[in-house]
Amino acid sequence: GSTIVGVGDPDPPQFIYDDDEYQNVFVS
Known about the structure:
By secondary structure, the protein is largely without helices or strands.
């Protein structure tokens, strides 16, 4: 994932997040 929506952007987000952890937070 990437960006705050975590839809799979090629560019990494400004913050490092775990897919397993933040998938419930940014599961837009």
